[in-house]
Structures are given as C-alpha cells and as structure tokens.
Amino acid sequence: MKVLNLINGVLSPASSSQWLDLTNPSEGKTYGHLPRSGSADVELAVSAANSAFKSWAATPAGERAACMSRLADLVRDNADMLAEAESRDNGKPVSLAGTVDIPRAEKNLRFYASAIQHFASESHVMEGVALNYTLRKPLGVVACISPWNLPLYLFTWKVAPALVSGNCVVAKPSEITPVTAYLLSTWVKEAGFPDGVFNIIHGLGSEVGDALIRHPKVTAISFTGGTATGAHIASVTAPKFKKLSLELGGKNAAIIFDDCDFDDALATTLRSSFANQGQICLCGSRILVEKSLYPRFRDALVAKAKKMKVGDPMDPSTKMGAVVSKDHRDKILASIELAKTEGGKILCGGEKTSPEGLPHLQNGYYVQPTIIEGLSPNCRVNQEEIFGPVVTIQPFENEEEALEMANNSEYGLAATVWTNDLKQAHRVSSELETGIVWVNCWLLRDLRTPFGGVKNSGVGREGGFEALQFFTEPQNVCIKL
Ligand code: NDP
Known about the structure:
The structure is a single chain. By secondary structure, this protein is of the alpha/beta class. The protein folds into 2 domains: about 5-250 and about 455-480, 3-Layer(aba) Sandwich (Aldehyde Dehydrogenase, Chain A, domain 1); about 250-450, Aldehyde Dehydrogenase, Chain A, domain 2, CATH 3.40.309. It contains 16 helices and 24 strands. The chain has helices at about 40-60, 60-75, 80-90, 95-115, 150-165, 180-185, 190, 205-215, 225-235, 260-275, 295-305, 325-340, 380-385, 400-405, 420-430, 465-470, and strands at about 5, 10, 20-25, 30-35, 125, 130-140, 140-145, 170, 200, 220-225, 245, 250-255, 285-290, 345-350, 350-355, 365, 370-375, 390-395, 410, 415-420, 435-440, 455, 460, 470-480. Helix 9 links the parallel strand 10 (about 220-225) and strand 11 (about 245). Helix 2 packs antiparallel against helix 4, helix 3 packs across helix 4 and helix 4 (about 95-115) packs parallel to helix 5 (about 150-165). It is globular and about 65 Å long. The site of NADPH dihydro-nicotinamide-adenine-dinucleotide phosphate has 33 residues, from helix 8 and helix 9.
C-alpha cells in the first residue's frame, strides 16, 4: 500500500522522496508507506490552493454542493472497502468502522452539501435611515488537521464545511492513520472539484503540520487533536491573527443517580467507556455513581467488562479491537501502573493482551478493558486524559458532590447524566462546565447542534451553521437610504 499526496489535482509522493511506515496495529506489522512531506510540499499545496481560490469562491454554492454530494456518493459506493481500510489502519473493529465511521463520513459530506444551501446571513434595518446586511465571505486557504481515532469521520467533518463555503483546503490527516483520507483523495477529481481546491498532504505533524500552520497564506486552522498540540498551534498562530478552531482532549464524567434506568445506564456506560477501545474524545472516563447504587452498579459493570474479549478487528463479530499504536498502548499501560501507585484497585483488566488462538495477531497492540476504583478525584489518573480502554469509578453522596467531582477537571468537553428526575437532569446539566451534555444517552448526535468543549477541551464550535460561520468572514455593508 502506498499513500500519496494530492496536490493541485495530482497524486504524488513527497518532493523529498522520503517515506514513513504504515503500521497495522492489530498485527504490529508494517504494511505500506506514506509520504514524509515537508515545507516544500506545503508550499506547493498552498500555492495551488491560493491560485484556485478566486474561481472556487465565485462558484455558485449549489455547484460546490454538487461536488460534495458526488464525493458522498463515492464514499457510499466504496463503503465496505473504506471500512476495511479504516479497521486495518487503526485497529478498530470493522463492524464499528462499517456502522459508525464510514456512514458518518458520508453523512458529514451530505450534511454540508445541504447546509450551505440553507446558510443565510443577517440584515439589520435602521428604519428610514440605512440598511445593513452582512456578507459571509470565504476565508481563502484554510488548513484542516485531524487525529487518528476517528480518521475519516473527523477529517470529513472539517473539510466538508470548509470546501462548501468557498475556501480552498490543505488538509493533513494523522500520519498514524492516513489511508482512508488518501482513498478519498483518489475520488476528488471524479467528484468534480477543480484542481487545487482540495489538497491533502501526509507526513509528521511536527514537520508538515507545523509548516502548514505557519504558512503566511493559511488564514484559518481547524484542528482536532491533543491539548498540548492545540496549545502549540495557538501559540504559533494567534500572534499572526489566524482564525482558530480547536477541538481538544477530554476527561468526561458519567454521573449516575440512583433513580436511573439501571439497565440502560449500565449498557450505555459500558459502551461510553470502551467503544473504539476508549479512544473517542467523548468517552466517559470518570464514572461517578450515587452511593446508594454504587456497589450494585460497579459489580454489574465489572462483570460485563470482564466478558469483553479483544478479537481480530477484521472479524465482523469483534467488539473490541487493537489500540492504535505500540507507543499509545505503552502510554495506556503506564497510566494503569500510575493508578496502582496512586492507590487505585484494578477491578478488571489492567494488562496488555491479544486475541486467543490467532497467532498472526500476537504482536498486535491490545489492552484489556480496565476499571479502577479507590482513586482520589485529584490524582493524576483522574485528571489526565488516558484515551484508552481505562475508566475510574467513584461514589458520590449527593448532587452537589457529583457536580463538584465532575467539574474538578481542567477539561470540559462532554458529560453524561443518568436520572429520571427531569428537574435534576436540567439543574445538573446547566451547572456542568462542558460544551456537551447527554442525558440518559451517549453519543447521540444531531449534526445541526454545536459541538466543542470549554476549558482545556478547546476553543470554538463545530457542527451545523457554527462550522460555516467559522469558515467564513462576516463583512457588514451599511447602505444609507
Ligand atoms: P495530536 O495532537 O498528536 O495530533 C492531531 C493532529 O495534529 C495529527 O494530524 C498530528 O499529526 C497533527 N500535529 C501534531 N503536531 C503538530 C504541529 N506541531 N503542527 C500541526 N499539526 C500537528 O493528537 P492525536 O492524533 O494523538 O489524537 C488524540 C487526541 O485528539 C486526544 O487528546 C483526543 O482527546 C483528541 N480528540 C479530540 C476530539 C474533539 O472533538 N475534541 C475528537 C477526537 C480526538 P501526526 O499524527 O502526523 O503527528
């Protein structure tokens, strides 16, 4: 497998002719290469995007949307192949890629193909005096940088609103999982995008990513990834007054009151803890349970987690696959060791593992679903993002304490609340310092709603018209009557 850059409509290797390894985390084996691009490739891509901008910005929104819809059709037509590619590249179960990642990628493209045709700007009338109207102009060349956990899903979530609103894009997927973005790039011309409008470059974040954010012609950066990388990008680009949208890490709380629907809360908490091997920024990694329900809930959750077995990600019946890389597995295992030194009791899991009876997967990167209790809310394991199949569980006395524990975090992405008391649900939700709250559900997404975090979880919102607003500059025109 050879991944290539897409620059000015041409698929090509890095201008340095250097390559990086592609690894299949389920086997721990190299299976291909991707270009190790650098600033020369950024220069070519930004220059192509800049040349294409005037004409693309002047293209009617309906025509831009038609290109996006055709790209969505190509994703749909190749969905099975994309799901397998995502699973091989990331280690996630093919069943998850086939039911969540790829359908959502298609939906993202279709959603923004439609949304741009309903996007309107404001007018303000000063009766008898003047008429103000606000134009929404595309920004120019924008950078879209996405992470490895939901590769095509998060990549399309950024490039779709950027492109339909008339910008030219230079996108950089994670070097760890570039394959599905590459496959998408092979259909960009067929979908009808003019050369230079949509460029995709591959390589290391610290090299090609850094060159991209620093390029003077890049006017805006939409970034999803870790908080430390987000802080670095902000420190480089804020003094240049580039527009920034940062979707960063999380340390999300699941608050479970004793009047909840027990079975639903249990099944969903299992999913919100371990889906995608816990590598979703929205996973609930701190489970807080009302004291009266605590022993029953804890024991039931542990019993269910013990039954979860890692398997071959390519087997359609597998629910738990590999984590994304050896480095990441080792980081997760180090967090478990840290939990032990901080006084945590491992209720289940806690070790690396591999699927039983499958010799070709014995060198893959697998971690057992792990639940830890007995840690203080302030300890590092309860404060730092682990981003793996590891959760902590803690009892709380009452609503006040639950809120105090949930908000005791530098992060503020999402929370879940489980209760049948509607007033309590509203009270707690409105006091939570997060950008998103789910009540009696998790990961239920309406693409029209604002998505993003507060505190160290980010700046700005994606989703719905928020993303179209981000990717356009308002200009007020005041006409004297
Ligand atoms: P990273 O921050 O390491 O990387 C994210 C992207 O940024 C990658 O494409 C990476 O490239 C690139 N990058 C790295 N350094 C730079 C740089 N100096 N300049 C420009 N780009 C750079 O995050 P991960 O890929 O490890 O993703 C996991 C993180 O993402 C977790 O913290 C998770 O919480 C967060 N996340 C947040 C979400 C949200 O919506 N809030 C959703 C999903 C994940 P490369 O990989 O090639 O190094």
